[in-house]
Amino acid sequence: MEVKDKIIVALDVDSLDKAKPLVESLAPHVGCFKVGLELLTAVGAPQVVEFVHSLGGQVFLDGKFKDIPNTVAGASKAVAKMGVKMFNIHCLGGSAMMKAAKHAVEEVCGNEKCPVILGVTLLTSLDHKDLVEMGIYDELNIADPEEKKQIEQDRIERFAVRHLAWLAQECGLDGVIASPKEIEAIRNYCQPELLVVTPGVRPLWAAAGDQKRIMTPAEAIKAGATALVIGRPITKPPVEIGTPVDAAKKIAEEIASVL
Predict the structure, then answer these.
(1) For the segment 25-82, what is each residue's pLDDT rounded down to a tens digit?
(2) Which of 69, 148, 180, 220 fits a disulfide with 225 by CB distance 3.0 to 4.6 angstroms?
(3) Is 85 a catalytic residue?
(4) Identified catalytic residue from 6, 18, 34, 64
């Protein structure tokens, strides 16, 4: 895998007109483009995929499917027919749903190369407080802040890694999407061939935004990430960094420095 293939650019825009200059300029410098719910809903998945392909880019369709197994199987077949590089489904949809998606894609592709299926473990915008609010864990009554922080991290790893990432692997998914903070645990707990695609990555020169569990690109790659999903630091870089292409090249240099 080339260094550029480790960079996935998030196209968080609402029109093809806004996406066009980004895809045209960045396609030679990155592995693919993550197309999320905003653009998929505003334009339509087939049109977006065809558009990105026409400009020389590859697509990570970030639809985060989660529904009954039959519905997700049908959606997975449709995505596979579009020729995307990868797409994702929620691990929280359960084992039957994940297996149905895998089987559906294999039916469509036959002996041809199938798109990579990634399981979403825990959204990087969530932290331990959110898990408590959702009733997954009880609030901790621990006075020592360092001890409390460690137990909270252990709980997140147990839920996202030992349960969800392991289940995705057992269901035949190609990889998972996980916070940088869980990469090491996944590498220790799951099979080495499991892909780990990591959002929540911010260079030191970029703002954290709404991500709560973050790392720099170099830290994430050193921890064992397969590829990094990066949005605003590339698509809207600080003025002192330059253009999106300048930002992508700077991140590629950072990644190369630890390979």
Answers:
(1) 999 999 999 999 999 999 999 999 999 999 999 999 999 999 999 999 999 999 999 9
(2) 220
(3) no
(4) 64
